[in-house]
Amino acid sequence: MAHAKWLTRRMHRFTLIGSALVLVALLTATPALAETSSWQKVDAGVGIGNSINHVYSQSQGRLWAVGGYYEENTGKGVSTILLSETGGQDWTKQVLDGVQYPLNAVAFSDPTDGVAVGNGGMIIQTTNSGANWIHRGFANNTTGRYYEVAFADDLHGWIVGTRPRYNPDEPNANSPILKTNDGGATWFQQQTPCDGYYGLELSGLEVLDEKNAYAVGYYSETVNTELHGAVILSTHDGGNTWTKWSVQALPNTNISFEAVSFGDATHGCAVGNETYGEGEVIYTTADGGVTWTRRRSSDAPARAALMDVDFIDANQGWAAGGSAIVATTDGGVTWTTQPWPSPNWYLRSITFSSPKLGWAVGDNGTVLKTIDGGFPPAVTHTVTAVIDSVLPNPVATFVWATLTGHGTDSGGHTITGYEWTQGTNVLNGAATFRARALAEGAYTMSLRVRCSEGTWSPVVSQVLTVTKSACSLTAPKVSGTASARRGTKLIGSVSPGHSTKVTVEIRRYAGGSYRAYKKYSVSTGSSGTWGFTSKPKKGTYSVRAYLAADTGHGAGSSAWRKVIVR
Fold first, then answer.
1. In the chain, N or C: fewer CB atoms in 10 Å?
2. Is 25 in contact with 16 (CB distance < 8 Å)?
């Protein structure tokens, strides 16, 4: 996990001249809060101008946070050390004597022994849980900055930062990596493959155990060169040797890593910024740092420069920086933005002690806490289907039954889908439809609806009863004379009488049997009678009438009637 170097390297000029300019510089890029957040602000008792650069979880109940500022009028540095014994809900300031600079990181090797590092080559140590702090920094390192400290156990730990100065005659004299083998009482430098470079700043550190550690940052090989970029250093022998993996910056751009975190021995993530803090940088590894792959958090606000990252396992992690908090559940392949209240200040550090419990800190005394992983509370809504009517019910065989329904969503989402079913058969996908051609019996007609969010409602049902049609038709008969020359008028009726449509089927006798000849569709009057005139050829015919199946009034058929046309 990392710290907040970008403040001191990229934004240091703002912090030196007071809080008024900090307000102007940072509020101009502040996005609006888009949704409810599970991150809640906590009052840490420090105000405008005091940046909290790092938060460290010693246990779920015990937390440390460090930071500081430069006095506006004198330029004097002030250190801030905060302790919470209530899981980050309440904070108390620790008293620090002597020369002070803003602090950038803190870590503990055991329950009582801890080290904090900061600007001006500042290294301070406590051996009594913060009751007193002892200066351990190098006297000649007043221009360099230390950005991160981490321990493998109660004896072994590392510090990374910038070296105080570059001496071309002694290029390896001032390595930005320090090691302790006595719990932080004394520190010594370790050589890196980049010590001969003109510029080397290491801002992030992850210590897996006594042998394995990773440091990330920025390098520049020579003065005024394009050979610069982001660097990852790793050791697997306790720091005796370090190997380099780097990303060279494109022309006219800059890229740097600010933090690194591993969820296990092989899965890690390094984050940072590109082009002087204007965009995010995310790289992941699944092979212990042998290879790294660039990732994107496409919905991060303005692709914010990321300052810190923390993984609790191989899959779940968080990163913070600028006004953004992003989270991943797939090892850093994809990321989701997590909103937080009033994101007016830049975030510098983030840490989690469990998948649910986490904290983030930043500018102007900002302290945030989440108890559910930072994910916004789920918006619950109920989708309900309603069958308004099934008419007529009961319905006669081959009569249209009209089914009407609607849906509601308690969350205000639009109902976009309907599904009517009978048994396993899907009948229709509209709010209203008509069904027919059902045999006698009882049928369970079911409806469910879907909202615009894709959620289906539970199924609701209503029984449709189908009865045998009570409608009857008289057999067609000839009105007058059946004449081929003058035409033949056929008439008939439907009982009970009503307006409907009747199909008149005519078959002609030929070759020893009746064969299909013609069909006519006629309408009845309100009394149920019908009639029309046809001009068939001379011959013998058989005629019947039946209700059209789609009339909506019933189905039935008359007897056949023999008609001879002369």
1. C
2. no
